[in-house]
Amino acid sequence: MPDDEVDVPALEAAGGLAGEPDGYERLWTPHRMAYIGGADKPTDDQPGPGCPFCRAPSLPDEDGLVVARGDVAYVVLNLYPYNSGHLLVCPYRHVSDFTDLTPAEVAEVTALTQQAIRVTRAVMAPQGFNLGMNQGEVAGAGIAAHLHQHVVPRWRGDSNFLPIVARSRALPELLADTRARLAAAWPVRGE
Question: Does a structural domain hold residue 125?
Fold first, then answer.
């Protein structure tokens, strides 16, 4: 065997490259480091391109991961999803508190949340949903300055050891593919 080749089976049989194998399979998700490091988080509470929820609807739908648009609110895929099909329903207006929404925003966020559940059921057949709106950073809002409603599809057994042991999620579909399937199934406005 040439000097620059490693006999991996022999090393594993001898105890591995760095000691005894521990029996765990590793799923590397380096894209999560961007989220952990604070990527796409606004540096202030101001509206505009620094806020991902202000920026997303200004992009083409595919680039912004926008699934559907209403008059005062829109639906976008979560860039750092808890599960495949994790949607966010956001008002276009940069507002942080649910009590500050206008009646039209409340109505459309609610209607889009209902539609998100219907479309996700038709496209992905989840067995349940988690719905939630975190108000303030201490309540878990990753981006507290721009209100967003989470719509997370759930399947029996979708949570496994990965989030607990490896602080990682295994997602079976690319965001662009999920967005395309959900957008294609979304009813045309006015119909």
Answer: yes
Average pLDDT over the chain reads: 81
Q: Give residue for tokens 């975190």.
A: 134
Instruction: Report the SS3 class of residue 99.
Output: helix
Active site residue 150: no
Per the structure, the complete domain to which residue 98 belongs is given by 28-185
Q: What pLDDT, on a 0 to 100 scale, did the predictor assign at position 158?
A: 77
Q: Do 75 and 53 contact (CB within 8 A), yes or no?
A: no
Q: Is the pLDDT of residue 132 over 80?
A: yes
Tokens of 46: 């101001």
Strand partners, 149: 89
Q: Which of 86, 146, 148, 150 is flagged as catalytic?
A: 148
The CATH number that applies at residue 125 is 3.30.428.10
Tokens of 154: 């759930």
Sign of CA dihedral 6, 12, 14, 20: positive
In which band, very low, low, confident or very high, does the pLDDT at 11 lie, cut at 50, 70 and 90?
very low
pLDDT tens digit string along 18-36?
Answer: 555 556 555 555 665 665 5
